[in-house]
Design a protein that fits this description.
62 residues, globular
């Protein structure tokens, strides 16, 4: 993500996933924070990001 439009596309792509409660991306930090229901397959998160032609560097569960 390099701009606000990229940030919005990432938030929309991840936020539209089944089981995602909220998604907030930050293009300056280069990351997104995702709140989800239990049982969300976190392996699907990078796929949603990459479908928008961005790279997903990794996932850290909190």
């Amino acid at each position: 993500m390099s701009c606000a439009a990229c940030q919005a596309r990432t938030e929309k792509a991840v936020g539209n996933m089944s089981g995602v409660i909220s998604a907030k991306a930050d293009h300056l930090a280069g990351r997104a924070i995702v709140r989800s229901e239990r049982g969300l397959d976190e392996a699907l998160l990078p796929q949603a990001v990459e479908a928008e032609d961005y790279q997903a560097a990794g996932i850290r569960l909190l």
